[in-house]
Design a protein that fits this description.
Layout lengths: L1 H25 L23 H10 L6 H17 L4 H18 L4 H15 L3 H13 L3 H14 L4 H13 L3 H14 L4 H14 L2 H14 L3 H17 L3 H14 L4 H13 L3 H14 L3 H13 L3 H20 L5 H11 L2 H14 L3 H13 L3 H12 L10 H13 L3 H14 L7 H12 L11
């Protein structure tokens, strides 16, 4: 038995050697012959192209690369010209326009997005079209509209996780913090672990004042991001969180890495300007801000650059940026976007405070977010109405009323208003807190916070009068 087995093994070896030798003579690899010992290696699937990557990102509510978006839009425009009743292509086209307009700060894309998405909706009542309209409303800062469209999409497809992400943005803009919490719970249940979900969690935790939890979530989002554009967007978000904590060097590292990862991430370039200004590297800061505005002229960045120029005593250069801000606000309005918040902030600090109160009062009645509460309170103070202003300043900084975000600017505003109404102890406490959170939160208001605090002096050690 043993001898027969050895013979079989020897015969097997001789056959294998002969097969290999024969293949060598013929110039054929053994793995290419049918029925050989080794099956052929599987053929690798071709890598997805830029349009496919952009479409996947848009569908997943994640940031998309600008070159890929351009290719995707060109492809879908050609498709709907050839097949005008293709509802799915209309919805994809509309969502791509929204993302392109958001990434480039070009509100001219928004009317095109609305036309495409409404066409998709007329052809087919799909959750994708409804969700696209909700995302468009968020990009336009129309949070009541975002809520309406988003909730319609959720009713149609309750298990569609990306709708929950858009609803979080809508509820945040409306100051409905309980609804934000419920939407976040549903989002995490439907899609735990996704990078876009972690980034949304980071934003919510930041608004609640849970800074360490926010940092942990955005760090994880960076680690699991699937594309360079997505990773860069989350690095930029991490940079903003670091700057809010007063960590200038760390913020600068995040912003630089975001730009290296995706050169189209212009928000990170503006962030570089912010961090460099805080580090006293003023010339570099001015260059970074200007590069960001040349490619993505966001009005909030023009306001920041204008205030940096003003802090340097360069009033004429500041006015150029303030004029750019007004121009961008007008362009946004032409595209159906609402930039009343940034315009109101500008008017309160540098223009017509009474006009700022009117603008921001209307904004508050329509969408009462924490950011609007802070801006309206400051406008009222600047208009000489400190007693009314205090109510909004408290709302913006009181965690029990939704103002949990630890913002040095918000706390500074509250401290100055409290000083004006004679609450000196509270004013001193909040000005100190603002400078602890981030001593470099503003090139204009940071130094002012220190001046006001010095004027208040140390608290009295005398006992309060009896009776």
């Amino acid at each position: 038995m043993t001898i027969r087995l050895k013979r079989r093994r020897a015969g097997w070896r001789r056959w294998l050697i002969a097969s290999v030798a024969g293949c060598a003579v013929l110039g054929v690899a053994p793995s290419l012959l049918p029925g050989t010992l080794w099956p052929p290696d599987p053929v690798a699937a071709p890598a997805p192209g830029p349009a496919a990557l952009a479409q996947d990102a848009v569908a997943a509510g994640a940031p998309a690369a600008l070159p890929g978006l351009a290719v995707l839009i060109a492809e879908r425009e050609a498709q709907v010209r050839a097949h005008p009743r293709d509802a799915r292509s209309w919805a994809v086209l509309g969502a791509a326009y929204v993302e392109q307009g958001r990434r480039t700060a070009d509100p001219a894309r928004f009317p095109k997005a609305e036309e495409a998405l409404r066409t998709a909706l007329r052809l087919e009542k799909s959750p994708a079209a409804l969700e696209g309209l909700a995302a468009l409303a968020v990009a336009r800062r129309d949070f009541p509209g975002a809520k309406r469209w988003g909730e319609a999409a959720r009713r149609l497809a309750p298990e569609r996780w990306t709708t929950q992400a858009v609803l979080i943005d809508a509820y945040t803009g409306l100051g409905d913090h309980k609804a934000v919490g419920r939407a976040l719970e549903r989002l995490v249940k439907l899609r735990p672990g996704a990078a876009a979900v972690r980034a949304r969690k980071a934003a919510v935790y930041r608004d609640r004042g849970w800074r360490e939890d926010a940092v942990a979530q955005i760090t994880d989002a960076v680690a699991v991001a699937r594309t360079p554009a997505e990773r860069a967007a989350y690095l930029e978000q991490a940079g903003r969180l670091a700057f809010e904590r007063g960590e200038r060097e760390e913020a600068l590292r995040y912003f630089r890495e975001a730009l290296r990862t995706d050169p189209g991430q212009r928000a990170a370039q503006a962030g570089q300007g912010r961090a460099l200004a805080a580090l006293g590297r003023t010339s570099e800061a001015l260059t970074a801000y200007q590069a960001a505005l040349d490619r993505q002229p966001r009005p909030e960045d023009a306001l920041e650059l204008g205030e940096l120029y003003e802090s340097l005593g360069l009033g004429r250069a500041a006015r150029v940026q303030y004029d750019l801000l007004r121009e961008r606000v007008r362009a946004a309005a032409a595209g159906g976007a609402d930039e009343e918040l940034v315009l109101g902030r500008f008017e309160a600090a540098h223009g017509d405070a009474a006009a700022a109160v009117r603008r921001l009062g209307a904004e508050w009645r329509r969408q009462p977010s924490t950011a609007v509460a802070d801006a309206l309170g400051w406008a009222l103070y600047r208009d000489g109405r400190a007693g009314e202003a205090l109510e909004y300043a408290v709302r913006a900084t009181d965690g029990e009323r939704g103002g949990g975000v630890r913002s040095a600017a918000y706390v500074y505003h509250r401290g100055v208003i409290e000083r004006e109404v004679g609450r000196y102890g509270a004013a001193r406490r909040h000005l100190q807190e603002a400078l602890r959170i981030n001593p470099w939160f503003s090139p204009l208001d940071g130094p002012r916070a220190r001046e006001v605090l010095a004027e208040l002096g140390e608290p009295s050690v005398e006992s309060p009068p009896s009776g």
